[in-house]
Write a structure and sequence with these properties.
Strand content of chain B: 15-25%
Oligomer: heterodimer
Number of strands of chain B: 12
Number of domains of chain A: 2
Low-confidence stretches of chain A: none
Structural class of chain B: alpha+beta
Shape of chain B: elongated
Mean pLDDT of chain A: 86
Largest sheet of chain B: 10 strands, mixed
Helix content of chain A: 40-55%
Number of strands of chain A: 13
Number of domains of chain B: 2
Number of helices of chain A: 14
Number of helices of chain B: 13
Distance between the termini of chain A: 31 Å
Order of helices and strands of chain A: HHEEHEEEHEHEHEEEHEEHEHHHHHH
Low-confidence stretches of chain B: none
Chain lengths: 380, 386
């Protein structure tokens, strides 16, 4: 510990250089953490889904509806404990520049099947009772400054016209993958206004035992195989995962960029550290003359490099960890529950350690091996 | 002025340090060009989809072909409209189209499902969409379950070769041709006859109607007269503008990411450049003293060191361009969230983008070199020479 002051003095000699080096390490790790979090958040969303929930879609594709009459037939199957359905609405609010998801659901069964959607009992009741009521995620409240009981008008894109709903409740999702920027409203009202079409976009089926999922999914599909609208049923997790794969190569691009970032800053930082070590050749020779051992000088140089890398890493990773929740970031709705995972912090710390080795090793070995006489000759 | 050779030789004196700094800048530039090339390629694919000469009719309020729906009555009203051009055979150049998405599993990984556009077109569509050209096989025959597959799909999805059979919508379809469309989004679509697709998918309804304008300059007038027609409620878009708009959401995201990521990276690289230049200057203080003793003015020293820093950055910029160039024409795919369909497109590294990349590097170099150069210019001769 007695050498701490020496290390600090060395770091403090070129204050600007030290600060810039630490900051560039911090920026690199901040970017690294951000980019990696995009990938981990997408992966986490794909993992969402109660093991006991299945999703049934029209086998022809997800834009095709299913008859509403399937609800009762699915409900009657053994192992099925609950059925709910929903329909994508895709309405636009305001000038249409900001978008949020909105769909029609069967309120009672939907809320029962999704315990992750949490709201006060009074609001739950009010929403279920009002046919033109809407339930919204808490992010929408802060984004648009809406209030409970207020009327909100959406412009239908698939189902034309102006649709006005009354906000009856605000929910907080316990699972971030549910999304807190969603508006849901009564399927009854939807059905009535488009003229009793009797269609459901997708069914959510709750079953009593997760291990029976493949079997029940298959029997649902078998039941409707020869009808005009065959179904494709899978677990909710598979359904979510299929959305994640729609990004295609984007995740891969993100990680490639993350690597490039880290590597670029690593080069720059290593360079700065090596140069500062080179300037000190004379000094190191003096230290050796007064009895500092080779091993000690090696350690001191490594500690100095490590201090730069670790302080930078702590700043960068800490900033990412604190900043994103603070601004409630969700990637414009594309990345619900954006979170810097612990694994990202650990990998970030390892990167910093790698940086310490890469940038400290060459100067440290040089310091340890420095021949005193030759080095002193250069000192004026 | 201090000759530039002095700087070039100084840079060559410390090859490792120069290489590391230049490589750092180069990586930043490469990421910058790469990300913009991605956004560029995506935008270009959609911009090329629509034609200036065509108009696209959707139901009023629909923001994509997917959310639109038009009856046969609308199709016949438009076919009879005087603003529509007529083909060589005297028939109006109109294509009422069925537009749906179907899930297809990819060849390399069947768990990856993509939503592929299936477009049912009229016989006229092959003329209306003038950028479409058949590369292999024959156009689907009217009345048969035959399809033509865009060339971008053929490598990524199984059963899409000419002569093979693709199953979707509960029916088998024989693939009779492949088509290309100048790299546009059409190349990621499957085309067939609209009358064949109607009963299979959404029944007696079209999603969009494309037609060739008799006079492309008179679009506004055509738009006004069709939208005012009391018999239907439609929006009329210029086709080129409509498809360009469909790219906006994703290309905005990509551009934002490019600027954010490279912005932060650039700051890091500039910090690195500052460190390098400060170190270079403090170790060369006696040299600077000599230069000044020889009579070079402080501002020429400033310019000289700025030039040196810019030179290192220039090497980096060129390296970055070299790293980014192989990306050109690499095909990638993602979902276009505006239309919810998967589209394949290629990175487009344009000369302009390379130039911007090099300029970006130079800016980093000049910013990074400015304060160290200023210090060099302010050195006291006596002190520096000591």
């Amino acid at each position: 510990m007695k050498y701490l002051r020496l290390v600090l003095a060395n770091l403090g000699r070129h204050k600007l250089r030290t600060v810039l080096t630490i900051l560039s390490v911090a920026l690199a790790l901040f970017l690294f953490a951000s980019l990696r979090s995009v990938t981990t958040t997408l992966a986490a969303t794909a993992q969402f889904g109660g093991a006991r929930r299945l999703v049934a879609l029209n086998a022809t594709g997800l834009v095709f509806p299913l008859p509403l009459s399937y609800a009762n037939r699915i409900k009657g199957m053994s192992g099925v404990t609950g059925v709910s359905w929903a329909n994508w609405f895709g309405g636009r609010y305001g000038d249409g520049n900001t978008f949020f998801a909105n769909f029609a659901v069967d309120p009672e069964s939907y809320l029962a099947i999704y315990p992750e959607i949490v709201l006060p009992d009074s609001e739950r009741k009010a929403f279920i009772q009002d046919r033109t009521g809407a339930l919204i995620g808490k992010r929408l409240i802060s984004r648009y400054g809406w209030k409970l009981g207020q009327n909100v008008t959406l412009q239908g894109t698939i189902f034309p016209g102006a649709w006005t709903f009354t906000i009856r409740g605000v929910y907080t999702p316990t699972d971030p993958a549910i999304g807190d920027d969603v508006l849901i409203f009564h399927h009854d009202y939807f059905d009535e206004r488009i003229g009793r079409a009797g269609i459901a976009g997708w069914y959510i089926v709750e079953i009593d035992d997760a291990s029976k999922a493949p079997m029940i999914a298959k029997s649902i599909d078998d039941m409707f195989r020869n009808s005009s609208s065959p179904t494709k049923t899978g677990t909710e997790r598979e359904f979510q995962a299929s959305f994640a794969t729609m990004w295609g190569n984007v995740s891969f691009l993100m990680s490639t960029i993350g690597l490039a970032v880290v590597f670029a800053i690593l080069l720059v930082t290593a360079n700065a550290m090596m140069m500062s070590a080179r300037e000190r050749t004379g000094e190191i020779a003096v230290l050796k003359t007064i009895g500092f051992s080779d091993r000690l000088l090696f350690a001191l140089t490594m500690v100095e490099a490590g201090a730069l890398a670790l302080i930078g890493a702590a700043l960068g990773l800490g900033a990412a960890k604190i900043l994103y929740p603070a601004i409630n970031f969700n990637g414009a709705g594309f990345l619900p529950g954006f979170k810097v995972a612990t694994s990202t912090l650990v990998i970030g710390a390892l990167v910093a350690l790698g940086l310490m080795l890469a940038s400290g090793l060459v100067p440290a070995i040089r310091a340890a091996r420095l021949p005193v006489v030759q080095a002193l000759r250069k000192v004026e | 002025m201090i000759p530039i050779v002095y700087n070039v030789r100084s840079v060559a004196q410390r090859p490792v340090s120069t290489a590391l700094t230049a490589l750092g800048v180069g990586l930043v530039v490469a990421v910058f060009i790469g990300m913009l090339a991605l956004a560029n390629g995506f935008r270009a694919a959609l911009a090329k989809t629509g034609s200036e000469k065509n108009a696209l009719v959707l139901r009023k309020g629909a923001d994509s072909e997917l959310s639109s729906g038009l009856g046969r009555d609308v199709a016949s009203i438009i076919a009879a409209d005087p603003h529509v051009a007529t083909g060589a055979d005297g028939r109006p150049l109109v294509s009422p189209e069925v537009y749906v998405l179907i899930p297809l599993a990819k060849s390399f990984d069947s768990t990856q499902i993509a939503n592929v556009v299936v477009r049912g077109v009229s016989d006229q569509a092959w003329t209306v969409r003038s950028n479409v050209a058949i590369t292999e096989g024959q156009k689907p025959t009217s009345g048969r379950a035959e399809i033509c597959v865009g060339t971008r799909l053929t490598k990524r999805f199984p059963h899409t070769g000419v002569g093979q059979t693709l199953r979707f919508g509960g029916r088998d379809w024989s693939v009779v041709c492949h088509f290309k469309a100048a790299g546009s989004a059409f190349e990621s679509e499957i085309w067939g006859e609209n009358e064949q697709f109607m009963p299979v998918f959404r029944g007696e309804v079209f999603q969009s109607i494309s037609f060739r304008l008799k006079d492309p300059g008179a679009f506004d007038e055509a738009q006004r007269s069709l939208q005012a027609d009391k018999r239907m409620t439609v929006d009329v878009h210029r086709e080129s503008k409509f498809y360009a708009q469909q790219s906006q959401l994703l290309s905005n995201i990509l551009n934002f990411l490019a600027v954010m990521i490279t912005g932060i990276m650039a700051v890091g690289a500039v910090f690195g450049a500052i460190n390098t230049m400060y170190a270079a200057i403090s170790s060369r203080a006696p040299e600077i003293g000599v230069l000044m003793t020889l009579g070079f003015k402080p501002w020429t020293v400033l310019v000289s060191f700025l030039a040196e820093s810019a030179f290192i950055a220039l090497i980096g910029g060129i390296l970055g361009c070299l790293f980014a160039l192989p990306l050109n024409n690499i095909v990638t795919s993602t979902t276009n969230w505006s239309s919810f369909s998967e589209i394949a497109f290629s990175f487009r590294v344009t000369p302009l983008l390379l130039l911007v990349g090099v300029l970006f590097a130079l800016v980093m170099g000049v910013i990074g070199g400015f304060f160290p150069a200023l210090r060099a210019a302010r050195l006291q001769v006596v002190q520096a020479l000591r």
